[in-house]
Structures are given as C-alpha cells and as structure tokens.
Amino acid sequence: MTDSKIKGEIIIVDNSSDFSYKDQEDIIYIDPKRNTGFSKANNLGIINSSGEVVILLNNDAFMTTEALVLGLDYLSHHSGAGIWAPELVYADGRAQNSSAPLPTLFNLIDEYLFFNRARKLLNFFLGKSSLPQPFVVESLIGACWFINRKAINDIGLLDEDFFFTSEDVDYSYRMKSQGYQLIMDKRVRIIHLGSASQDHFRWYKDSNLHEGRKLYFYKTGSKKIYSIASKVIDTGINIRRLLDVKNKCRN
C-alpha cells in the first residue's frame, strides 16, 4: 500500500501458523486459537474491517500495486459490481482457472463420472477467454477478492457451514442472485501458488471439496437435485479410488 499511497488496514487472521504478527503496530492480528475453517476466518477479518472495499487475500496469493489500484478504481466507478478479481497465475506464469460457471448437474456429472471430457472438448472449440477488458462471470475463485462493502451489507458474510472450498462458489451464487456483478479482470495478474495450505493428496481424498459441493447443491437445488448430486459425487469418488488401487496393483 505504501507504493500506491492508498490508505488501508491490514488484518491477518491466523488459523494456524508458527509466526506471530502481534508486535507489528500497523497490523490487526486475530488469533482464533484453532483452525476455524476458511469461511469463519475470512468472516472474522471482514467483521473487524472498516473500509468501503474489503480485500480477501489467501495466504498463498501475492498482491501487486497494479492489482490494488485497478481493483479499487473499478469498484469505485461501478456500483453494480459486487466482487472484482484479477487473473490468477502460478509462480511460473501459467494461467489458473480464475473464474468458472456456477455448478450444474451436467458439469458435476462430467467431472465426477466422465473426467471432465465435455469441458475439455468445449474449451478446445471455444478457446479460453482473452478479453482485454473486465468482463462479467458467474463465479470467481476466492484467492483474491475485492468486495464492495455495500454488497456485503446486503448479502451477509460467507457461509460458515463451508469449512474449506466451495464457499466462494456459494458466495458468488448469492451475489449473482441479488443482482450484483462478478468481474474478472485479465488486465492484471497476481501469483497464486495454489493449495499451499493443504496437504497434497489425491483428488478423491479431498473430503472438504466433495462435502462442500454437496452442501452447495443442498442449498441451491431441490431435494431431488441434491440427492442426484450426492450420488454422482459418491460414485465418482469410488471410481477414482478403484482406479487408483488398480494402478497401484499394476506397478
């Protein structure tokens, strides 16, 4: 913030680290004493903040002055925008998925039962979006969000029933449902290491991911849709588990 001459407050919610920021006067330090989950930790930061724009930044994402200036400027001139986000890239410059369509039964079935074949085919024919100007998307990956305070006041905090993952999809859905726009801005990139706070285990073992997706369909769909989604997820997990065992036997 010093480089950009923008006044703001830095709030660190320390879910579980070995480093203390308590002695730094320019930082608001919050220690929940335990790992409360991603949503709860972010909510603690939001509740203790006072700015017109709240920036949620993952511990493995790195803010730049350019992103800070562009994000704040965009929200100050677009009252209908609920969240603005820069493009996310890995440390080596490779692009990440920074936005996505909201989940449907179709893309859930494609991912869990058909290994994303439909999505890969669609991306092949349509190509990745390279719009030079900010554009509206259905959901934003929650590694770096600039959130309009008015939108927070209207919509509320993150749903703490989501311990880790899918809370960003749920919040995107709630934003969109209330008429706010979600803005992806590829004019600026920031590095997001990705999964730096997680153990690197196989996809089917990521229980938070799968339970979060079930919860999303429980909240947003009918009982029938939720039941189908749950069965698709459980079946997909079992397929991956069996394939993993099979591959291990071959080796």
* Amino- and carboxy-terminal Cα gap: 52 Å
| Helical proportion, percent range | 40-55%
C-alpha Rg, in Å?
19 Å
From N to C, what is the helix and strand string? EEHEEHEEHHEEEHHEHH
Strands, total number? 10
- What structural class do helix, strand and pairing data support? alpha+beta
Number of discrete helical segments: 8
User: Which ranges are low-confidence, i.e. pLDDT below 50, for 5 or more consecutive residues?
Assistant: none
CATH H-level homologous superfamily name: Spore Coat Polysaccharide Biosynthesis Protein SpsA, Chain A
Beta percentage is 15-25%
Q: From the coordinates shown, what is the CATH architecture?
A: Alpha-Beta Complex
Question: Which CATH first-tier class would you pick?
Answer: Alpha Beta
C-alpha geometry: globular
Q: Please indicate the count of domains.
A: 1
CATH fold assignment:
Spore Coat Polysaccharide Biosynthesis Protein SpsA, Chain A
Average pLDDT works out at 89
Domain Glycosyltransferase 2-like: 9-154
Protein name: Glycosyltransferase 2-like domain-containing protein
